[in-house]
Design brief:
Blueprint: H1 2-29, E1 37-42, E2 56-62, E3 67-71, E4 74-79, E5 83-89, E6 92-102, E7 105-115, E8 120-128, E9 136-142, H2 144-153, E10 155-161
Parallel strand pairs: 2-8, 5-10
Antiparallel strand pairs: 1-10, 2-5, 3-4, 3-6, 6-7, 8-9
């Protein structure tokens, strides 16, 4: 009986550590959970700037859901279905987060990025399996050719906190 009790106690401690580790990883990439964004679509322009000197550029394209994107613990912006946005970042190690919700479900996906000055990176947040409702959610880094293609087909969106 003591062995079973010890096992249960240690299992609970390990579960708590796993949950804390996941929470820390999410906090390092995402922004505050209570932040909501409004996305405005601008049909009059389609900017695709190159990275500013000494920076890298990150483009995020959404095809399916309203997504909120975080970088290094701060929300960088949001996009809706069929929109894209971009953000310039410093070179170095970064932690990205994509968060989405649909009806009563919500998902988070994390991605690390070793950004190099002058490079451009493209990401696509996508639900995986069961239309995202019962499956996973992923922030997929795209091949640059695919990324440029998807950006060319999307509308430019700017987001503001509500």
């Amino acid at each position: 009986m003591k062995l079973v009790s010890a096992f249960l106690f240690l299992s609970c401690c390990a579960f708590g550590q796993d949950r804390a580790a996941a929470s820390n990883a999410e906090a390092a990439a995402c922004g505050p959970r209570d932040m909501k964004f409004e996305v405005k679509i601008d049909r009059t322009q389609h900017p695709t700037p190159a990275p500013p000197d000494g920076k890298a550029m990150v483009y995020v394209v959404s095809q399916e859901l309203h997504n909120t994107i975080g970088i290094d613990g701060k929300w960088a912006g949001a996009n809706d279905r069929g929109t894209y946005f971009y953000v310039a970042i410093d070179p170095g190690e970064h932690h990205l987060c994509a968060a989405a919700s649909y009806a009563t479900a919500s998902w988070t996906s994390l991605h690390s990025l070793a950004a190099k000055a002058g490079d451009t990176y493209y990401f696509l947040p996508i639900p995986i399996g069961d239309g995202g409702r019962g499956g996973r959610y992923a922030l997929e880094q795209l091949d640059p050719d695919e990324g440029r293609y998807l950006v060319s087909k999307a509308r430019f969106g700017s987001s503001q906190p509500r």
